[in-house]
Amino acid sequence: TLSDRLTSVLKNLRGKGRLSDADIDATAREIRIALLEADVALPVVRSFIAGVKERAKSAEVSQALNPAQQVIKIVNEELVGILGGETRRLEYAKTPPTVIMLAGLQGSGKTTLAGKLARWLQGQGHTPMLVAADLQRPNAVNQLQVVGERAGVAVFAPEPGNGVGDPVDVSRRSIDEARRAQHDIVIVDTAGRLGIDQEMMQQAADIRDAVKPDETLFVVDAMIGQDAVSTAEAFRDGVGFSGVVLTKLDGDARGGAALSVRQVTGQPIMFASNGEKLEDFDVFHPDRMASRILGMGDMLTLIEQAEQAFDAEQAEAAAQKLGAGQLTLEDFLEQMQAVRRMGPLQNLLGMLPGAGQMKDQLANFDEKHLDRVQAIIRGMTPAEREDPKIINASRRQRIARGSGVAISEINDLVNRFFEARKMMQQMAGQFGGFGGGGNRK
Ligand code: GDP
Ligand code: MG
């Protein structure tokens, strides 16, 4: 995954004050591979990477994130931006019924989607009706009727025994029926072919002209991969559409089709299908899709949490003191609280790339120990936190009583604190300034 590969790039970048062109190029190469692996079409990858590089080069150095995290953040923001930023809502007709037409290749999931969409709309107080305008396959009408029954919505279909009906005629009549029976939304399920086909495209265009849809949704299988671009272009030119629905997201496709279709047609992705059941359906979430395409949702969560919890000024001050061997227990407490605000340490460490081998140690890690350490420090006066040397026997007794721990635990903490501080001082001496100059100018 990108996360694994970026680990090495991360190593190289970590600790540098700002992004060099070489750093950005190295990271861009990894992102390029990740996008191609996610089946994003090549021209889309190219223009995307160019945009990211541009932004990375002019970006201000973040106080909260290391350079690699910062690049990942930029990549993610660009992805979310292209995928739609805020999700667009359905446009409803001023006078009902609102007509929603579904178009897409055979097997893309139109009929399934019709049921999901109808039920979703019903849940919002609408009274949708499904229209069987796929009269190509013998079973198609029946399939829609089953879907309609399951969703609990009306289905308009050609009368049985009349031979094969004309899909354009059925679609036209469905609008009158919707008005009569007061359905405020009509969802027209059309036929598809296995490949792009002129006859099918013409039929879809004829249905479009007959029902004048308020929304035409292009339904596309997320597993389609690189073919997404040519298919989307064919439907854009043949029928035209106002929105995209991505299906089969429950599969293992990384979802590059989403970025390709969005970038090439400019139309928003509005809904996502992720299963065969009626409830496997949601409005499209650009942020979720972005992390899926990047394949590093955990890393993004970590970045977000780091930004929230990390107070750069505080860290800077602590680092300065550390370098001068002046770390106090108060600093220690603050740092510990900042880290813990990001969530349980087990989760936190588990999210880091390469944490796999640490699983066992993580499982044995006792968070309660940190609670006790915090309790001890909180039981100290400011003067004691500032200069732990003054903590004599009677003070230890008072702190133990106040924080409900044994005196031996306080001894432990104070001793380890002195040891750690001594070690820092030695390191500072050895390396000529520890911590203060690392991440920042
Ligand atoms: P249509 O030809 O475009 O109408 O496609 P269908 O709605 O008939 O779906 C084709 C097949 O894909 C059916 O077996 C559906 O059950 C299945 N399908 C549709 N949407 C999804 C989805 O989101 N996830 C999964 N796993 N299967 C789906
Ligand atoms: Mg169908």
UniProtKB/TrEMBL annotation:
GTP binds at residues 104-111, 189-193, 247-250. It is found in: Cytoplasm. PROSITE patterns: SRP54. Signal peptide: none annotated. Residues 268-281 form the SRP54-type proteins GTP-binding domain. Part of the signal recognition particle protein translocation system, which is composed of SRP and FtsY. Composed of three domains: the N-terminal N domain, which is responsible for interactions with the ribosome, the central G domain, which binds GTP, and the C-terminal M domain, which binds the RNA and the signal sequence of the RNC. Involved in targeting and insertion of nascent membrane proteins into the cytoplasmic membrane. Binds to the hydrophobic signal sequence of the ribosome-nascent chain (RNC) as it emerges from the ribosomes. The SRP-RNC complex is then targeted to the cytoplasmic membrane where it interacts with the SRP receptor FtsY. Belongs to the GTP-binding SRP family. SRP54 subfamily. This is Signal recognition particle protein. The gene is ffh.
